[in-house]
Amino acid sequence: RYNSSKKVREYPKTLTLDGKTYETDEWTNIPPFIMDLTSRKLHKKPDHPIGILRDLVETSFKGMGYTYYNDFNPSVTTFENYDVLGFSKDHPSRSRSDTYYLNENNLLRTHTSAHEHECFQKCKTPGYLITADVYRKDEVDRTHYPAFHQMEGARLWSSNDKDLEEKIIADINAIPETGLIVEDPFRETPSNVNNPKQEYMTDRQVQLVSVHLKKTVEFMVHRVFEAAKKAAKAAGSTEAYLNEPLKVRWVEAYFPWTSPSWEIEVWWKGEWLECCGCGVVQQQVLLNSGLGSDKLGWAFGVGLDRIAMILFGIPDIRLFWTLDERFSKQFSSGNITIFKPYSKFPGIKRDTSFWINETSPLHVNEVMETVRNHGGDLVENVSLVDEFTHPKTGKQSQCYRINYQSMDRNLTNDEVNEIHKAVENDLVNYFNVTIR
Ligand code: FA5
Ligand code: MG
């Protein structure tokens, strides 16, 4: 794939994660600063915003038949993350530019759905909730970070139960009313040609299961966003949206392991916010998990970090990972309180412009990662600011602007220059670019 003169990044012979050792190979692509994040377990810290949000949702679902799993190791197999869920062999999210691999068969989970297989197998209650840190190679900015958190929920019934329909209806009625304003064009007829129902379920079963799913997700969204409003009011905010009823809408979605599938969006400060993907579980996933052909049910997956940013008024997703006590001292178990910003340290901007070597393709994510490898959390933002093709030579040029900034201190020009130089060296050595 790459030009032969290109230097290949080197990794140690083995990587150790949560006490397990993995032999590295040509798939390995996890830099040390990502390896370090895997031991942080923010969702298990009772006085960290991510842990407080997890606790809020778990408390809301108490007594409703869910088992909570919070201790899954971040390394999973390609089988668990992809194959068992029905991802095709050439699905783009398997690529090394999107996913962190320990080696060919083991990776850092990209979503909590990687544990559906195991939980369907071992869970003894009708439903479960899994919370975990997940990893994706991604851009770096205020709302994107290569590590974030998800919560997965699922619920099953058995069609051997001769009162199945009555049972689901009773379960629907047991979900507390929310008073949400719900826009859902798919409530009565959940499936259609684009978002088909599965053969093994009747129309009525699909309808009941999807109403149970949607009411459950609406219940969770309501709890969380009402808590966000309450915290904002307690902090003295008088903005109009705080007194308006909460509004959500359902849109169709596609996931390889559910059908039909949807996403819920929440109307928040004048924008529709994508919150949670979900759907009726594909029977194949249940069969792969060793369950009988009588089982049917739903699953959802919600991203916690952006919601926690709203709840706690946190302006930047990277703050969740800071070790600065001015951050951590502000939060306590069971309390939703608005973050009080402490002084921001000034950033230092540096541009890098180069000609791309046409035999060494350079994916934007590779630039992002090269910068992160050297700058770690000192990288506030990376953006492609200019791109052009030379009219005579046909050569392609790109310019990236990097803002270096520390959450905790002033950076010196010298240390930024050193990081920036190391970034440019890597781009030259690994991607054969020519710095302009
Ligand atoms: C999933 O990850 C599915 N596993 C969800 C699912 C589960 C669907 C079960 C059906 C059944 P998606 O890639 O859309 O889907 O991510 C889910 C949520 O994670 C998003 O709605 C968003 O809130 C959050 N999220 C995604 N990428 C990022 C990121 N880079 N930073 C922070 N949050 C993110
Ligand atoms: Mg999505």
TrEMBL record:
The keyword Transit peptide applies. This is Phenylalanine--tRNA ligase, mitochondrial. Residues 343-436 form the FDX-ACB domain. Residues 132-341 form the Aminoacyl-transfer RNA synthetases class-II family profile domain. Is responsible for the charging of tRNA(Phe) with phenylalanine in mitochondrial translation. SUPFAM superfamilies: Anticodon-binding domain of PheRS, Class II aaRS and biotin synthetases. It catalyses: tRNA(Phe) + L-phenylalanine + ATP = L-phenylalanyl-tRNA(Phe) + AMP + diphosphate + H(+). Transmembrane segments: none annotated. One of its GO terms (cellular component) is mitochondrial matrix. PROSITE patterns: AA_TRNA_LIGASE_II, FDX_ACB. Keywords: Aminoacyl-tRNA synthetase, ATP-binding, Ligase, Mitochondrion, Nucleotide-binding, Protein biosynthesis, Transit peptide. Its EC number is 6.1.1.20. It comes from the Eukaryota. The keyword Lyase does not apply. Its main location: mitochondrion. It is found in: Mitochondrion matrix. Belongs to the class-II aminoacyl-tRNA synthetase family. GO terms for molecular function: ATP binding; phenylalanine-tRNA ligase activity; tRNA binding. GO terms for biological process: phenylalanyl-tRNA aminoacylation.
